Amino acid sequence: MLRPEGILALLDSRSFGSIWFWVILTLAWTMAGRRILGVPSDVIAGAIGAEPGPEDDPAALTLLDWLSLTLPRWRVDRREGAILLGLGSFLLTTLAILGFGYGLEMAQALVLLVLPFALLFALELRLARRLRAVLARAEVGQPVNEAGAEAARLMRRHRAVIVAMSILAVALTAFYGAVWMIAHPFGF
Fold this sequence. Notes:
- By secondary structure, the chain is an all-alpha fold.
- Helix content is 77%, strand content 2%.
């Protein structure tokens, strides 16, 4: 029969000392910046320079088409949002208590990995709501070039936030991991 000490010992492993943790952390943040709401970066870059004019810019049209296909996936109503918030808060709190309350290295590493992505998810939901408004204005009659440039500007700003978050998250995780390894050289 498994005792609680056995389960806690199973969860405790050398996360900060494992190369796999650092590979996952690096890959996760690299992949987070490659697409914004499912739209590739080159599509966004092409629509940034859309000039107002009588003809519709193909790059702005392409961006608005991408948004019309990807934004419905980012629609979360109040009930689903409450469930996501409650479940996410419960899981992160559980990991934080296991990690920082009971000193489990793996739980600490998971908190440092998952918490910034939870914040990024909330920011992406906010961006999707803003872009839905831009797309709705384009459908009603706003010029395509203007709507595409506005959407590209919002997405470019969001990408800058992702880059700043990734630098901060990796730096803080590396600092905390180094302090952990110095304080616990043999994993105890």
